[in-house]
Amino acid sequence: MKLLSVVIPCYNSQDYMRYCIESLLPGGENVEILIVNDGSVDKTAEIADEYAKKYPTIVKAIHQENGGHGEAVNAGIRNAAGVYLKVVDSDDWVDTRAYLKILNKLNEFVSDRKAIDMIISNFVYEKEGAKYKKVMKYENVLPIGEIFTWDDIKQFRKGQYLLMHSLIYRTQLLKDCRLELPKHTFYVDNLFVYVPLNHVRSMYYINVEFYRYFIGREDQSVHESVMIRRIDQQIKVNKLMIDLVKLDNLPSPKLRQYLFHHLEIVTVVSAILLIRSGTIENLQKKKELWNYIKKNDIELYHDIRYGMMGQLMNLPGRLGRSISVGAYKISQRLVGFN
Predict the structure, then answer these.
(1) Residues spanned by the domain of 38
(2) 88 and 193, same structural domain?
(3) Which of 55, 165, 188, 306 could tie 123 with a disulfide, CB 3.0–4.6 Å?
(4) CA-CA distance, 96 to 25, in Å (whole number)?
(5) Are residues 156 and 22 in the same domain?
(6) Per-residue pLDDT tens over the stretch 186-230
(7) What is the pTM of this model?
(8) Four-point Cα dihedral 224, 228, 232, 233, nearest 10
């Protein structure tokens, strides 16, 4: 039995995937590494097969037609045999010491027959050229060293949120909640985090800097100019978050508060990118997004639209839009997100 399945979605990743894979090999036989080659046209497939041949009991190469990041994650979930599951993007890597600590804890859970739904750890923004590396930590909001529920969490700060990089899910939970990420769509990592949380009952926080999230490539999906070009996909994910999880139906007020917090951040990012693009067409899309939220959930609309960030994103006229962008840039510097 494998403790952990690590899914590595790869698309034309020949230049950096080796570093990612090598960082995961110290897990040894406790781990299965699922390299999902998503229709690459470079040497990704060869590299995946090379590692699968060299480490046949640890590495599995999965080859599929191009379906996008979400479909690569879906393939990983379908093929996962580990008790727990982690997604590591092919240009990122993990810290060895933190990795081994986490595996020790997973082994404890399995040995003690404790089915913990979600394990949380810290991640580091490895931003190229940045002197200061922002670490996303949760010690101010999550109990350390104990199993806890949503009732035990404190309030997250603005700009502090759970990302795919923070989370390890129990594999069966992902299968039971039938998580299916959309094909050919960027930014689905928001859905990977957001949708299963309603099914999570037990959690454990390990206060280590485990995941290293690389930011720096010009073609990277989180680069602002790239996000503006793909704004329709960002909006699609934003709407799916609203459609797939009805916040009013949640039994835990603290879970609702967290999910609202996450949805608010994603909506603010959508709005600011539409403003930043400067086109009349995209300003119209911004108006349509607010109308979509209003039509689907009037209470949610009021909470986001008339919250501090919502008001900042909707200041009237060109001057108002300049103030919105300025406020967003300050937030970027303070919070450290891209």
Answers:
(1) 4-215
(2) yes
(3) 165
(4) 9
(5) yes
(6) 999 999 999 999 999 999 999 999 999 988 655 555 567 788 899
(7) 0.91
(8) -20
